[in-house]
Structures are given as C-alpha cells and as structure tokens.
Amino acid sequence: MHSPTTTRTRRGRLVAALVGTTLVTAGLTGCSTAQDGVTTLDFFQFKPEAVGDFTQIIADFEAENPDIRVVQNAVPDPDTAIRTLLVKDKVPDVLTLNASGNFGELARACVFADLSDEPANDDVNPAVQDIVQALGTCDQGDDEVNALPFASNASGIIYNPEIFAANDVEVPTTWTDLIAAADTFRDAGVNPFYCTMKDAWTAGPAFVNLGGTLMPDGFFDDLRAEGSDIEGGAVSFSKDFGEAMDKEVELFSYCQDGFASRDYNAGNAAFANGESAMYLQGSYAIPAIRASNPDAPIATFPYPVTDDADARVAVSGVDVGISMGRTTEHPAEAKRFIDYLMSPEVVQAYSESQSTFSPLLDAAPNTDPALAGLEPYFSDGRIIGFIDHQIPASIPLVNMLQTMVITGDAPAFLADLDDEWSKVAARTATQREGKE
Which of 10, 109, 325, 389 is geometrically suited to a Cys-Cys bond with 14, CB 3.0 to 4.6 A? Predict the structure, then answer.
C-alpha cells in the first residue's frame, strides 16, 4: 500500500515525463458532483464506435440507480485527453482504456484505484487478467488490480469466404499454405491483401503475430536484463526477429497497388466491398467493416506463422479495461457502476454488439460467424499477448514498421529497433542512478 504522498509524487513524475503540452480537449470534464441527492460520475470512454452501446448501458444503469447520474465523455484522442486531465489533476471517476503500454505507464504511476476487492475479480478468466497485470500495477506486484477486463479482442487474418470459395482456396493452416493462397489470388487478378500504410499502426498486427510466435521464450525479460548493451547481449531484435520480419515483408509484397497512400478507414470500406481476399487486421475491425457493408462476408483464421499447423495461436489483448480514478470523491458510487458494467449480461451484450470476446469465466462463446475461426483459440487459452505492449512508447515502433514494409528492408528496421531500445535502456539506467 502506498501513502498519499508517495502516490502523488509518482503521479507527478509521470505527468512531467509524459505530458509535453497542456492542450484542453473540448467537452472534457474531470469532476463529479452531488446535487439533490444525485451523484454525478464522470465516465471517460475511449471507443467512438461504442458510444451507442455505452449510452444504452448508462440509461439502464441509471434506471436501476436513480441516485447516480453518469456522464459519458468520449474523446477523439484518448491518450492525449487522459494526460490533459492528469495535468489538471482531474482523473475521471470511471474509465475505459485499452490495456496497452500506455495504460501500464499510468497504472504504475498510481493513477487508478485498486479494484482487487471487487466481486467481479472472481468471474474474470485468470489468463485474461494476467495480460492486464503484466502491463504494470501501482504496487509493482500482483496484489493490486488497476483494471478489470471488460472486452477482449483477437488479432488474426480476416478473409472473404466467398472469394476463397470462388477460387477454390482452402483456409491456410501453414505458412506455405498462406503464401500459396496469396499467389493463387494474385494470379487470378484478386488482391490477396488490402493494406493501409498511410496509417502506420496497421503494420502492427502482422508484427505482433509473427514476432510473438517466433521469438524465443523470455525474450523481453532477457532483453531488459541486458540493459543498453544490446549488441553484446545474448538476445536482440536483429538476432531473434529476422525470420519474423522477413515474413512480414513477404506478406506486404502481396498488397494492392498504392497501399502506402490508403488509410484504415479506406481499408475497412474496401474489404467490405470485396476488394481483397484477406485483410491483416484483428476482430476490432469487424464492426467498422460492417458499418460500410452490413452484409459483407467476413471470416477469420489465426496466422499460420510456421509449417506446423498445431503451433498456431491467436494474439489476444484486453480491448477494453475498466478502471476507477484513485482520487475519486465517490468511490462507492463508482464501484456500483463498475459492478454493473462487469455483470455477465452487460459484458455479453457488449461482446455480441462489438464482435469481441468475453473475458469472464464460463461465458458463452461469441456466436458471431466472423469470429468462428478465432473463438476456439480464445476459449482454449491458446493465446499470446500483444508484444508491442512490451516496447516503450518512446520508441516510434509503428513508424519504423511502416518504413520497413514500404521499403522491404527488414535488417535496417531491426538494427534501428535495437538502437532505439539501447537508447531507452541507457536513459532509464541514468535516471535510476540519479535517484539513488
């Protein structure tokens, strides 16, 4: 347990380190009030495509809890917005956040309350909660829970089953099968993949699937233990990610013409309209594809990274985590709202609406046919986490990946990534020594 002074000090260091500007986001509030016996909670909600779902959830909650009013604040740039609120010392009462490296930094800075005593903890799949815990906690251990998993996603390959059937292509189960399928489509005048490199982050799904499957066990633990001496260490990106990045470059050689100028929105619309056989995106893209074409034929399969079909896994992350501000003035009311959000009925309804996987034990499998190819891997626990969450946010990973897939120069990417990691490790060591 940390004293209030320790918590304030750690949060202050985070703000100084992570916030380079004090932009004010229109519409943001960071306070909660009580008037006429009604407590108002500020609910920070980061997914624009889920505003409608949460609006209905809030309406149902308020009907059952007339003494609580919940104000949903949905913002276009949540990472900047939450840091703006930190500068203003206005952490929202309840928050949804993607369980990513950014969340981990905030958790370690003690921005979020400990939810380890929440009843919902007993209902969460431990393997899913472990993904959140691995990102970091306020106590830097296993005692605190700074976010409860509300929705999980899975990253695989989305495909058009009608195009596959028309070209007599079976779902690939090995790397050789995948490349053969891409060749078949290209020879038939069909785009094998629709790629969207105007948005650099869209090179990330292939990186986490290929790299996460092929990297040695304990890679990041060993890399961190080496400090800044990457070149002289036993592991490095150059030594251990060569095969994975060569395969990513090979996949992107099958993209459509002009892929460097297309963005994610264009990719969703193009795939929805049947402009490619496959799409290198995760389950989170399915609602956006259906928004362009509700009748789009969509199916999924896990990356066949090797020629061992039994080695296939799905990359999974917590798409939405539920947190509570550590300094909220209304913890009892905030926990009541969190308890409602984490109820099996609410989690399941959201899962079906947003094409996600329920992180709760004994949850019914998502019956969305688009997820049928990934659901067994999630249900059976054949999952790995997003390895990009292990890479410090100060390293411009997605921009480096963007350059790699456009130029095809994997060795340069890996050398640059080693160099960037070494610089961060050296800065971290210097900062640590300065505090001793």
Answer: 109
Sheet bearing 157-159, strands edge to edge = 278-279, 157-159, 299-301
Q: Is 162 helix (H, G, I), strand (E, B) or coil?
A: helix
Q: How far apart are CA 202 and CA 264, in angstroms?
A: 7
Q: Are residues 170 and 285 in the same domain?
A: yes
CA-closest candidate to residue 338, choices 121, 48, 136, 78: 121
C-alpha angle with apex 87: 86 to 90, nearest 5 degrees?
Answer: 50
Dist CA 130 CA 385 (whole Å): 10
User: Which strand (E) or helix (H) includes residue 251?
Assistant: helix 242-252
The per-residue pLDDT for range 28-68, each reduced to its tens digit, is 444 555 567 899 999 999 998 899 999 999 999 999 999 99
Same domain? For 283 and 219 the reply is yes
Using DSSP's 3-state secondary structure scheme, residue 356 falls into coil
Long-range Cβ contact pairs of 340-346 (< 8 A, separation 24 or more): 340/57, 340/61, 340/64, 340/65, 341/57, 341/94, 341/150, 342/118, 342/120, 342/123, 342/148, 342/150, 344/123, 346/57
Q: Are residues 36 and 79 in the same domain?
A: yes
Q: Which of 436, 431, 434 is nearest to 14 (CA)?
A: 431
pTM comes to 0.78
Residue 24 has, within 13 A of its CA and on its CB side, a CA count of: 5
Q: 211: domain range?
A: 155-315+390-428
Q: What is the pLDDT of residues 94-106, one digit of tens each?
A: 999 999 888 988 9
Quote the radius of gyration of the chain (alpha carbons, Å). Answer: 22
User: Please, what is the Cα angle at 201 between 198 and 203, to 5 degrees?
Assistant: 85
